[in-house]
Amino acid sequence: MAKVLLVSASPRRKGNTAQLVEMCAGVIEDNGVEAEVLSLAGKEIRSCLACGKCAKLGECVQDDGLNEIIASLKEAGGFIVATPVYFGTARGDLMCALQRIGMVSSSTDGFLSRKVGGPIAVARRGGHTATIQELLMFYLINDMIVPGSRYWNMVFGRDPGEAMEDEEGVAVVRRFAENVAWLVARLEE
């Protein structure tokens, strides 16, 4: 069965970002594709060491929980990341994770190539588009397929639950999740 891995980069397990990821997972499953949700909350994801050992090991030499994410990602046809926006950009631990995932992929069999997905940004006031652009670089440099929606995948909200009240943002992200599920299922046929 086709699968999409969704990662919440929020340190809050029940915050706005986590709620949006759960909603996306439900949409993906409603469209006949398995969804697996992982959270970076409680993990201490470190920066890439540029040691090059992943080329021989097939995984990262650092033991901080990222290899479990990589193993799940290798089995998935889709990959969605969602992050709160802090100081106009994605969370640092998410960027560390993505850079290391990209390094393992490019140093081994290129397992990210032609996976479907994209980013979601959640913020109180601003920084959404800069964050989306920053995260899109990961998808595009790794030969991935990014479907669109009716607008950018960004939602406004500060306190837990506020983002789900952004009707337009939620509708955009919902459509994005539908498009990811649709495309992953078609590519798996």
Task: Give the helix/strand layout.
Layout: E1 3-8, H1 16-30, E2 34-39, H2 54-57, H3 66-75, E3 78-86, E4 89-90, H4 92-107, E5 116-123, H5 128-141, E6 154-156, H6 167-188
Parallel strand pairs: 1-2, 1-3, 3-5, 5-6
Antiparallel strand pairs: 3-4
Helix pairs in contact: 1-6
Would you write up a description of this structure?
By secondary structure, the chain is α/β, with parallel strands linked by helices. It has one domain (3-188): Rossmann fold. Helices cover 43% and strands 18% of the residues. It has 6 helices and 6 strands, in the order E-H-E-H-H-E-E-H-E-H-E-H. The mean pLDDT is 96.
Count of spatially separate domains: 1
Give the CA-based shape.
Answer: globular
The CATH superfamily is Flavodoxin domain
Bin the helical content: 40-55%
* Level-2 CATH architecture: 3-Layer(aba) Sandwich
Concise overview:
Helix content is 43%, strand content 18%.
Defining traits:
single chain, 189 residues, alpha/beta, Rossmann fold, six-stranded mixed β-sheet, 6 helices, globular
